């Protein structure tokens, strides 16, 4: 393996740690819980999205986070119709050892962190394909038009 390929692995590992650390800080929790929250929210969101939109979102993610996003993915079974409460129940179920944490707070913190890390407008494209009750989980933007 060339040195360049190893640099790609080092970079994605570093970015993934940055994402987990940012979620850990925002959620005031340990890194393991932050990883579980990132995984739970991304995979629940992925399953709620049409396959094309999931692919677009995944292209914006660091390589290792993209692997987490696609773990266990079944594109022929999406999008799964979920209400806001069902979405949060799926997040809670995927949290494994930390089910006592508030899935609403964690989901909002993870989405706000992803929004910040991805940069302007990337997460808004995802929101645009979701129903209003799911969009309430995303960060509020004062400059956004009313839908």
Number of strands: 0
Distance between the termini: 50 Å
Alpha-beta classification: mainly alpha
Uncertain runs are none
The CATH superfamily label reads: Uncharacterized conserved protein DUF2267
Q: CATH class, anyone?
A: Mainly Alpha
Beta-strand content bin:
under 5%
- Major sheet attributes: none
Principal-axes shape call: globular
* Average predicted confidence as pLDDT: 90
Give the CATH architecture.
Orthogonal Bundle
Indicate how many domains the architecture comprises.
1
Tally of individual helices: 8
Computed over alpha carbons, the radius of gyration is 15 Å
Helix content: 55-70%
What's the quaternary structure here?
Answer: single chain
Question: What is the succession of H and E elements?
Answer: HHHHHHHH
CATH topology: Globin-like
Strand-helix topology:
Elements: H1 3-27, H2 31-48, H3 51-60, H4 63-70, H5 84-94, H6 103-118, H7 122-127, H8 132-135
Helix pairs in contact: 1-2, 1-6, 2-4, 2-5, 2-6
Describe this structure in words.
The protein has 147 residues and is mostly helical. It has one domain (3-132): Globin-like. The protein is 67% helix and 0% strand. The longest helix is centred in the N-terminal third of the chain and has 25 residues, at 3-27. The radius of gyration is 15 Å and the shape is globular. The termini are far apart.
């Amino acid at each position: 393996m060339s040195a360049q390929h190893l640099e790609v692995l080092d970079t994605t590992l570093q970015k993934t740690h940055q994402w987990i650390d940012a979620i850990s800080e925002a959620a005031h929790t340990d890194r393991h819980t932050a990883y579980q929250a990132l995984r739970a929210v991304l995979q629940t969101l992925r399953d709620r999205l049409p396959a094309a939109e999931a692919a677009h979102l995944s292209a914006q993610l660091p390589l290792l986070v993209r692997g987490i996003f696609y773990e266990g993915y079944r594109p022929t079974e999406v999008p799964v119709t979920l209400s806001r409460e069902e979405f949060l129940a799926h997040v809670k179920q995927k949290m494994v050892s930390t089910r006592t944490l508030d899935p609403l707070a964690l989901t909002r913190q993870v989405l706000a962190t992803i929004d910040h890390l991805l940069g302007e407008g990337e997460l808004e494209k995802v929101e645009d394909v979701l129903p209003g009750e799911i969009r309430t989980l995303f960060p509020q933007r004062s400059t956004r038009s009313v839908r």
